[in-house]
Amino acid sequence: MEVIGCSAGSPQGSGAASGYLLQAAGLTILIDCGPGVVSALAASGRLDDLDAVIISHEHFDHSGDLMALAYHRAFPVRRRPLPLYAPKSLTRTLRLFDELFGIPSLEDLRTPLRTQLNFVEVEIGSSFSIGDLRIDTLAASHPVPTMSMRFPQVGLVYTADTALTPELIRFSQGSILLAEATYVTAHGRDFSAHGHMSGIEAGRLALEAESPLLVLTHFADPRESADTLAYSAEHFSGLVTRATPGMILPLDGRARVEHPAQPSRVE
């Protein structure tokens, strides 16, 4: 899996909002498609490599670039539609986006989301398959219907946006964790209502789930992610790191990450 973007809310100086590219079972699947994700994939030449898209929930920082993706797949050359897997609640967003941003004078762009993304409703709490890849889902603790995802064939859990719950701990047992840590700490915030975690809760999740690797993501302010990491490490003594755009999680049975090479400084 490659991190395309890991910022909460909007793109930051460090890169795009939520987006992750999973390659497994011979498939290339985009998980979440927040603002900046399509641009990042286009810049790396991989925007046309997708076999499917999964969206965890309707919030804009996880779905906002779906229209850009649909435009790309419809114009100037119409490509085959992509399957889009998501909770039922996303259908309203898709319909409204088409009404607002469709171009009636161009046949291929009248309803780009409806024509270029074949929506497949996922009942949260169920399992589904894309080709030979199985995905288990869990109802996340978030203000809108949201699914945490487990990919048992590669030993990965993506929490999406959620508070820490006993159900999430059970769901994540023994898995590599790509876990949201929106805030450094919970100070002054009610996570039970807001449906998020800090570095502390993410660390507790990894500890109680006996995770071999914790990757923190979804930072409200990526400039504070080092502090988020430090708080998480106080609660989880295992391998923990913070997501950065371009980071690779090999998912080959060995708990490790590969960071993108930094360009040499030119004096």
CATH class category name? Alpha Beta
Which architecture per CATH?
4-Layer Sandwich
Distance between the termini: 34 Å
Order of helices and strands: EEEEHEHHEHHEEEEEHEHHEHE
For the CA atoms, what is the radius of gyration? 18 Å
The level of helicity is: 25-40%
| Uncertain parts | 262-267
CATH superfamily: Ribonuclease Z/Hydroxyacylglutathione hydrolase-like
Explain the overall architecture:
By secondary structure, the protein is an alpha/beta fold. It has one domain: Ribonuclease Z/Hydroxyacylglutathione hydrolase-like (Metallo-beta-lactamase, Chain A, 4-Layer Sandwich), CATH 3.60.15.10. Helix content is 25%, strand content 24%. The protein has 9 helices and 14 strands. Helix 8 runs parallel beside helix 9. It is globular and about 55 Å long. The chain starts with a strand and ends in a 25-residue tail after the last strand.
Outline:
It is built from nine helices and 14 strands. It is of the alpha/beta class and 267 residues long.
Layout of secondary structure:
Elements: E1 2-7, E2 16-17, E3 19-24, E4 27-31, H1 37-43, E5 52-54, H2 60-63, H3 66-74, E6 82-86, H4 90-101, H5 112-116, E7 117-121, E8 127-130, E9 133-139, E10 147-151, E11 156-158, H6 166-171, E12 176-180, H7 191-194, H8 199-208, E13 213-217, H9 225-235, E14 239-242
Parallel strand pairs: 1-2, 4-5, 5-6, 6-7, 11-12, 12-13, 13-14
Antiparallel strand pairs: 1-3, 3-4, 8-9, 9-10, 10-11
